[in-house]
Amino acid sequence: MEQDKILIIDMGSTRNTYIAREIRELGVFTEIHAHDMTREELSKITNIKGIILNGGENRVVDGVQIRASEALLNAGVPVLSVDHEGSAPWPQEEEARIDKLQSFVFNTCKAEANWNMDNFIAEQVAQLRAQVGDGKVLLALSGGVDSSVVAALLIKAIGPQLTCVHVNHGLLRKGEPEEVVHVFREEMGANLIYVDAVDRFLDKLAGVADPEKKRMIIGAEFIRVFEDEARSLKDVKFLAQGTIYPDIIESGTKTVKAVKSHHNVGGLPEDLDFELVEPLKMLFKDEVRECGLALGLPRSMVFRQPFPGPGLGVRCIGAITRDRLEAVRESDAILREEFAKAGLEGKVWQYFTVVPDVKSVGVRDHKRSFEWPVVLRAVNTVDAMTATVERVPYEVLEIITHRITHEVAGVNRVLYDLTPKPAGTIEWE
């Protein structure tokens, strides 16, 4: 069943996603688009029931006040004009705002509340089959939530026409490569190529301390490894990506500067001659997780914590060494295990360990030691723009400290990072 749609038109507001999310929570699908949509662009979207012109503080671009295109104004559907700053104020109280949206969506636009995950999956399966036909699809399967859900969706839609490539660059958390192989190759029957590129990555990173250089090396080397595997396969015409809606939104619109660029929004090598397949590009993160559960992925994979693209490489502060990287991996595993035992798994948004390239004096087996500290980090956030520090019970911290200092080689201290964002950031690098 094709879902009814409400279009949110970016007229300079920084709150487009808020309105989009609020309408989706009412059970109606929404999309965010630029103010200058053409008639051709508009014609490609079906089942439009209404349009919201969402104005705000960025309404003036290069000294000119932006206006909605004639195509939008003459689309033949109800239009609601919202201005968060001007003469038609949007209700600040959540209940009043929801009431206004609800009235517009259901009473004025006559939209049906038919946005749900079962309908989304059925629609995407049909679209994927139509797009791919009998062609072959290639997917870089990192083991993260987004790529895992894309893989599960493609397996449902086209089965053996999909080839997944899992590159182990040595910067994943403990047990993650094994879980990816087990879930997708053994449980879901995926055609999975496993690439052990640990030495290749760590050799490239040897002696590199600058965090941005580390990120560039990891990103570039990943592309090269993936290219090598892609070129060894024949007749692959499609490349699947785990692009999700925040990736597109954060990469910038015509009225809002980019929060950050995303590797899967315009960052592909030009010589990778594939047509893109991006079935999750209109989903928010919580919706991606819901989709994963509906497709039968294990909760441990679906609710995997946010994890930086460079992996543990940016939690091994300074130049990466194999022994210090292993200290990060082992201490992180202990932290996650003890948080789960204490009932903090799922309660705390993100928690991890950091091992800086510094040593301090300690005592080991009644002798002087000179070893690394492990820094614990546990934060809560709604949008990752600000973050608060979790008040972990002291007895839990004591257990974690004892385990890390006794079970992780080369570590003699455990510290807890009490810095919120701002002044700190969530990650250390």
Automatic annotation (TrEMBL):
Q: Which SUPFAM superfamilies match?
A: Adenine nucleotide alpha hydrolases-like, Class I glutamine amidotransferase-like
Q: Which GO terms describe its molecular function?
A: ATP binding; GMP synthase activity
| Pfam families xrefs | GATase, GMP_synt_C, NAD_synthase
Q: Which of this chain's residues are annotated to bind ATP?
A: 142-148
Q: Which domain of life is it from?
A: Bacteria
Q: Which Gene3D superfamilies match?
A: 3.30.300.10, 3.40.50.880, HUPs
Keyword annotations for this protein, in alphabetical order, are:
ATP-binding, Glutamine amidotransferase, GMP biosynthesis, Ligase, Nucleotide-binding, Purine biosynthesis
Q: Where are the transmembrane segments?
A: none
Q: GMPS ATP-PPase domain: which residues?
A: 115-304
User: What EC number(s) has UniProt assigned to this enzyme?
Assistant: 6.3.5.2
Q: What class of enzyme is it?
A: ligase
Pathway field: Purine metabolism; GMP biosynthesis; GMP from XMP (L-Gln route): step 1/1
**Entry-linked InterPro entries:** Class_I_gatase-like, GATASE, GMP_synth_C, GMPS_ATP_PPase_dom, NAD/GMP_synthase, Rossmann-like_a/b/a_fold
User: Got a GO cellular component term for this one?
Assistant: cytosol
Function, as annotated, reads: Catalyzes the synthesis of GMP from XMP.
The protein's name: GMP synthase (glutamine-hydrolyzing)
